[in-house]
TrEMBL record, chains A, B:
This is Phenylacetic acid degradation protein paaN. NCBIfam families: PaaN_2. InterPro entries: Ald_DH/histidinol_DH, Ald_DH_C, Ald_DH_N, Aldehyde_DH_dom, PaaN_2, Proline_metab_enzyme. Pfam families: Aldedh. Keywords: NAD, Oxidoreductase. SUPFAM superfamilies: ALDH-like. The lineage of its organism: Bacteria, Pseudomonadati, Pseudomonadota, Betaproteobacteria, Burkholderiales. Residues 86-504 form the Aldehyde dehydrogenase domain.
Amino acid sequence: MTHPLFAKHEDTLQKALAAIETRGYWSPFVEMPSPKVYGETANADGEAVFKAHLNKIFELDQPSTGETVGAEVSPFGFPLGVRYPKADPDALIAAAAEAQRDWRGAGPQAWVGVCLEILARVNRSSFEIGYSVMHTTGQAFMMAFQAGGPHAQDRALEAVVYAWDQLRSIPADAHWEKPQGKNPLLSMHKRYTVVPRGTGLVLGCCTFPTWNGYPGLFADLATGNTVIVKPHPGAILPLALTVRIARDVLREAGFDPNVVTLLATEPNDGALVQDLAVRPEIKLIDFTGSTQNGTWLERHAHQAQVYTEKAGVNQIVIDSVDDIKAVARNIAFSLALYSGQMCTAPQNIYVPRGGIRAADGTLSFDEVAQAIAGAVQKLVADPARAVDLLGAIQNDGVIRRIEEADQLGRVLVESQALEHPTFAGARVRTPLLLQLDAAHDHASFTKEWFGPISFVIATDSTAQSLDLAGAIAAEHGALTLSVYSTDEAVLEAAHEASIRGSVALSINLTGGVFVNQSAAFSDFHGTGANPAANAALTDAAFVANRFRVVQSRVHVEPKAAPAVAG
Amino acid sequence: MTHPLFAKHEDTLQKALAAIETRGYWSPFVEMPSPKVYGETANADGEAVFKAHLNKIFELDQPSTGETVGAEVSPFGFPLGVRYPKADPDALIAAAAEAQRDWRGAGPQAWVGVCLEILARVNRSSFEIGYSVMHTTGQAFMMAFQAGGPHAQDRALEAVVYAWDQLRSIPADAHWEKPQGKNPLLSMHKRYTVVPRGTGLVLGCCTFPTWNGYPGLFADLATGNTVIVKPHPGAILPLALTVRIARDVLREAGFDPNVVTLLATEPNDGALVQDLAVRPEIKLIDFTGSTQNGTWLERHAHQAQVYTEKAGVNQIVIDSVDDIKAVARNIAFSLALYSGQMCTAPQNIYVPRGGIRAADGTLSFDEVAQAIAGAVQKLVADPARAVDLLGAIQNDGVIRRIEEADQLGRVLVESQALEHPTFAGARVRTPLLLQLDAAHDHASFTKEWFGPISFVIATDSTAQSLDLAGAIAAEHGALTLSVYSTDEAVLEAAHEASIRGSVALSINLTGGVFVNQSAAFSDFHGTGANPAANAALTDAAFVANRFRVVQSRVHVEPKAAPAVAG
């Protein structure tokens, strides 16, 4: 009775179950783009396949109006020219309802087995997806491969295994037998049917289309829902490739492929999304994007469970250090990585204006600020190497934001345009680092400045720094908080601030781990308890409301006592 | 390190964990008001303690304005005269925030241990609480004792054990060690702190103040939240007694008793509740009551997780029977029990107008309707016995509804006022049974007529009956669906209708189980997937969003490889 795809991947599932129990390091998908793992020609093949998509119509045999849409432009300086079949949202909703019938009845093992097979095939397409992530988001290739490929696949599997962990805890049936004193037992057979909520809507973002899109997509599928994937108009291809693979697997497994469909759109699709998001058939929405759009969904899509990841203000508190160079190097890397276009990238760096303790004495505020500034400048000094870290700026809105931020305070490091050695038209900017003061710049640093924009902020004391960090996370949202201190009492106070702000804390990162990084199966991404996100990736709460249980009960002969003569 | 109250009750907790895994019969709290279990004088003592509350000020040492409130009237015909300390909602919110500090830090074992101790003591007060439920809700004593006492305690424990099941799956810490090829391992210690959401608000109802109030209250407490309990103004005493016990246990365990407070109010407290429900400190709301109020909360209390149980239309489909008398007897009991004032009581009974198959031939529509009508009349023929089943009508709104419903169709059984042999002023009414037709009475039977009001509805066929049942449950909500058929194909179709309507199905109930009954640890009460309720009692989804996890991470020496020289 075990579904063949479930049986095929059961070993992976068991390992994943063990991983979420201990939350130590585990990753089934290899993050290095190694020829030994992915094949000797995988990189070249993947790039060729990616290039073959350019300036063509993307084949997808789903309900379509017959027209095409698509206006993606690579942040590295050229239009992709990919045209996708245009779909009428009504037709996709109807197709999802039709596909739901058999899919719903297939049950948890089939849902999970299909998900695991999709992921295995997505993994094999990691290079193709990696190049498509690179040329939609602006991530440099290595990051696009890792974050858009195996790391996103890890996060997807994490959602699947959390779903399975909840699904398996619901018995398929039960024998209920209640003593009645001297009277015969009351005896019933009960049957529990897991019922998906209906159709899910996954709203992708333009910076991490797969990493942020997969958890909702796979959590929905693993709990038996149908899904309409609506990518950001600027980053359609990575999700289109994923949807096509999912549809192939569904079809081969005997299901209607319209369990998963793609809703590709032109830019400025806000009205279309709002109309779709409040449709009664849409029961689940996963969104990553602006606070404005996320809050709109939370407040208007009452018919749906809405999971949002929105803006936040990530912060670093510097109290005392052993080695300021190692601290500055680690921070600078975090600021430069993908030009700060990560939802986990730090923005506010608090330093007491009286300076800090270091291993060999004290450092003034200016010395700390200059150490960070110097580390940033060093990282981007060689454009050819810098672009592999910075990638490109996803859209012109970020460029405008850099220009606007430039006026906010004293400039520690100016943002500069760099020439990309390979892509002449690439939109590359180095990080902007400003000096602000907690005493009078509150309005500036309590909002998110998405992009390569960060502030070294002078505070009265570490106590004020931590107070700001906790309060700003609680009020404005945050996904990360980082602290540097050699003082146990300060670290304990930082822990309290992280609880107050309900934000994940990283302590004294000076080596190969950066605050921006969040590892599936170990790090919870977001807490769901501050305005940056209303859910965490991934925990039980992220999956438990994506299905319901419908029971039936009927009298049967008792088991515990002699059967009543019948 | 195990909390003493956790250790004290761990055996119960382990049994409860086993129960939710199998969902067979289990109940730790004895439902019979037996002197052997509860003590020889428990009944008399409990009644005396209840009576001692009448016409007095209820002692509760919590923040108060110094004034008193309370206007409860027994449906059995006398004012209770209990006055409760009046509380300013602001003061309760402030007290909860203050109490939160130590309570949050105590952690899952303390939260769960305290909950289990509260329940053990509440159980010992079952008679006192039973009489207080009786004289606020109008339930006859046996039901008030069982549903208001041990059954409510079972539901509370169920919420606690589901919470514990989720809490225990989060490791307190983890060692994360990531290979780096030829480079040294990356090695981190991670700490996961369970963080409650904040303050919960439990909004009680006037018919099942404890049964419907406890799950939210105990789910909140077991996940470390503080709770403000706001009973229905008509049924304060049962929850006031519960809150007082909870506060005693908290105080004895060394916690600030303001972890749980009571907000007693005068009737017509809607504006007060609405103001409180949207306060930023209120992060969880559990509500049982009208669709209007529940929907208001869902649409306005955006800052909170809102769990609602609202109105619904419960239905019975009669297709074919072995023994019409047994069917009619079972249905009549369900209609009469607590005068239909149960959220699970059936309202619409569908019978094909061409009649049904029975063991010994066919029965016409009228014969089926008359069998049910006759069974109802027989049940209430002897007023002295009838009142033990009917109890009293909770409020005048129900009386007015009976009068209004009387005009809807042909009367099969008229509702009558009965004299209560013990309580002269008791508001007792027998069930009203009307005949309607699916062809032209749709507007009448697609809304809830809360109270002893039900309809035998002529349909074209069982297929139409099931179609109505599924569609009405899906659109208007339902907690129960019951089917009578000797045909396996019809039972399968009924199962499909129950899935479509996302409503629990009972099949061929003719014995000692009634559709109104929902047993903790086995029956899910509500599915959370139709408009009657947005959550089920109890499953993982009911508890998983009541807490969040905040993590921290710091580099440590690797375990798996030789330590790097430091």
